């Protein structure tokens, strides 16, 4: 599971800079960068804060963060069949309308 990469993907989809998100989450840009690159693992508190700032449910982060390595071998076939659609649906919840709302709150 790569939560940092999920945060980065959602942040970019919302056209928010790393600096803006870090500032809103009361993190240093360096810390957020380390989270996004996998150098540092975010705490549950940090994940909650990011989700609050981005106005998304935490489940979206975890869905986007899921990787094939997280799936037991006996479930890989189902994962390969279903996961791309589930991930796409989760990312669609971060829509352009949502993006405008988040960007207005950041201004």
**Percentage of residues in DSSP E strands:** under 5%
Oligomeric state of the chains in view: single chain
What is the number of domains? 1
Mean pLDDT: 88
User: What order do the SSEs take from the amino end to the carboxyl end, as H and E?
Assistant: HHHHHHH
- Work out the helix count: 7
SS elements, strand count:
0
Could you explain how this protein is built, in words?
- 68% of the residues lie in helices and 0% in strands.
- Helix 2 (18-24) crosses helix 3 (29-36).
- It starts with a helix and ends with a helix.
- With 107 residues, it is mainly α.
- It is globular, with a radius of gyration of 14 Å.
- The chain has a single domain, classed as lambda repressor-like DNA-binding domains (434 Repressor (Amino-terminal Domain)).
- The relative contact order is 0.18.
Describe, in short, the structure shown:
The protein is an all-alpha fold and 107 residues long.
Key structural traits:
434 Repressor (Amino-terminal Domain), mainly alpha, 7 helices, 107 residues, single chain
Outline the secondary-structure elements.
Blueprint: H1 3-13, H2 18-24, H3 29-36, H4 44-54, H5 58-65, H6 76-92, H7 96-106
Helix pairs in contact: 1-3, 1-5, 2-3
């Amino acid at each position: 599971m790569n939560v940092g990469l999920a945060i980065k993907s959602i942040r970019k989809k919302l056209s928010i800079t790393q600096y803006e998100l870090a500032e809103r989450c009361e993190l240093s840009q360096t810390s957020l960068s380390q989270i996004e690159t996998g150098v540092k693992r975010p705490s549950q508190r940090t994940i909650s804060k990011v989700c609050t700032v981005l106005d998304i449910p935490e489940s979206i982060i975890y869905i986007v963060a899921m990787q094939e390595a997280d799936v037991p071998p006996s479930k890989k076939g189902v994962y390969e069949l279903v996961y791309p659609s589930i991930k796409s649906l989760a990312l669609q919840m971060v829509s352009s309308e949502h993006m405008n709302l988040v960007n207005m709150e950041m201004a």
